[in-house]
Amino acid sequence: MKKDIHPDYKPVIFHDVTCNKSFLLSSTVKTTETMKYEDGNEYPVYKVETSSESHPFYTGKGRIETKEGRVAKFKKKYSKK
User: Is residue 80 in some structural domain?
Assistant: First the structure.
């Protein structure tokens, strides 16, 4: 393999700012900030707004709309015309 063509693959903390949770994963993302992780070591940090800890689909707090609700909403909207 050629040298110096591959990105630097290193451990990075992905910090969900919505629920203040952090995940340590390996990534090639470039960051300038660092943060101390639970293991006591300092790693580069990448801030995200949504992760599996805060996404409504994974947390079960999402609103599920039934087909009847959507059809009724459509009929109500366009029945006036």
Answer: no
